Amino acid sequence: MSADNGLLAAVYQGSNVLCDKEHNLSLMKDQIKRASSDKVKLIIFPELFTTGYCLPKGSEDIERLAETQNGPSFQKISQWASEYQIGIIYGYPEKEDKDGSVYYYNSAQFIDKQGSSLSNYRKLHLWPSTDKDFTPGSQLPDVVSYEGVKIAMMICYDAEFPELVRAMVLKGSQLIVVPTADTYISTATIMVRTRALENHVFLAYANHCGRESHIKYAGLSSFINPDGDIIVSAEDKESLLKAVINVDLCTPKRPSYLDNRRPELYASIAV
Amino acid sequence: MSADNGLLAAVYQGSNVLCDKEHNLSLMKDQIKRASSDKVKLIIFPELFTTGYCLPKGSEDIERLAETQNGPSFQKISQWASEYQIGIIYGYPEKEDKDGSVYYYNSAQFIDKQGSSLSNYRKLHLWPSTDKDFTPGSQLPDVVSYEGVKIAMMICYDAEFPELVRAMVLKGSQLIVVPTADTYISTATIMVRTRALENHVFLAYANHCGRESHIKYAGLSSFINPDGDIIVSAEDKESLLKAVINVDLCTPKRPSYLDNRRPELYASIAV
């Protein structure tokens, strides 16, 4: 696989251990090292990967596990990014002290290969039953230029809303990165493929696999090209998936959906 | 198949003959009669079915083939609707004289079982290369109540825009009817399934099959349920597909995408 004409990226799909941050960070370090030795320039981990997704409900548990954006987990991951010269996107539970109150977010952070945070994103569309301990974000994702590719992060359920993906592509995104924790096969097999196709955009879908608490994850992490085709899929096993993101291929084979929209008719979906 | 708890609808997928309206209307009559004898309450024909899709380019040909909304083809089809007590949706090239000018539209008309026009819809998103003789419509589809189901029509490329389908479901549509003339397999296999799933709505996809002019149609007409599953598909052969539209099943299995939207964040897609 040559990355001469693009960004060589990787998605890690594997089982972390619920509430065992030390184990999960160690697993992340192993995969970061492995990806770096494969010349990967960006590695992507699933939603809430540092802690596991099925966090025990109640503020005491969340309080113990959540960290600030630049907390101890960030410090370690940032150091590995710099040491192994690789960008890293990972999901984690974020804690913020603000105006005398504490807020918790389901977040993803993007660290560059120098170890600096390029973007921190707070999930906008919370999954009603299991995300109830979190506060929804209030800001659209950033569009970050990294190694020649314009990238936006969103988290799991976010990507199921065509409005959000469209908004990010209109802002210039060429690659949508989706750390997720999904149990539905149809999300991977039809929905995120449609998101890529209808926007002429690459998409990286990073899911958990195996069982966690009462949940059986769907796996099926993948890279999807701007024609909606799966470039590579992890099926349901532990895997370090790799793909070259060549933005020259965002030029659509079909007529451009972006050019042929009729936004003057869409007002009712934004009120 | 029982229609006790819903609307028994049918899609006809078959090859009409380009520019031979007499033949195509005769074919439509045969299928209307056949569907009626099967107790179907609504039959749906593909895009531009009265004339074929690949109309010769240039105003003289279009002028010869297009009709007003209540022109001779409507008169015949309306009579059959009444005679066979069946609703009919069909695509046709529409001609309108207005303010001293003549306009041509790629339209679909919905006739009730009494033979009255319930709605006439002009395609909003024209396919750039082949729809060039038509004027784009300027009005969102109507939502029509028919036999207990709220129905909106759109045509082909229209349904590939998530914004339009969302707008119609927010207006109350429970069934999206899509007369189409599509050559892409991915539209049927992933895109319109995603439209149904992300809106918790039924969708009827009525395509041509076989060859017409330089085009090989994808077929794959289908009824899709609100979970994004294909209820029944025509593959690539002539077929009268039937399905019961039971709107009680629009209650989503997943959390409601409509309830969990964040429209205050979507302004950029409607300007």
From TrEMBL, chains A, B:
Top-level division of the source organism's lineage: Eukaryota
SUPFAM superfamilies: Carbon-nitrogen hydrolase (SSF56317)
Keyword Coiled coil: no
Coiled coil: none
The keyword Hydrolase is assigned to this record: yes
CDD domains linked: R-amidase_like (cd07576)
PROSITE patterns hit by this protein: CN_HYDROLASE (PS50263)
InterPro entries the record matches: Aliph_Amidase/BUP, C-N_Hydrolase, C-N_Hydrolase_sf, RamA-like
Keywords: Hydrolase
CN hydrolase domain boundaries: 7-251
GO BP annotation list: putrescine biosynthetic process from arginine
Pfam family, one: CN_hydrolase
An example molecular function term from Gene Ontology annotations: N-carbamoylputrescine amidase activity
Name of the molecule in the record: CN hydrolase domain-containing protein
Species annotation: Amphimedon queenslandica
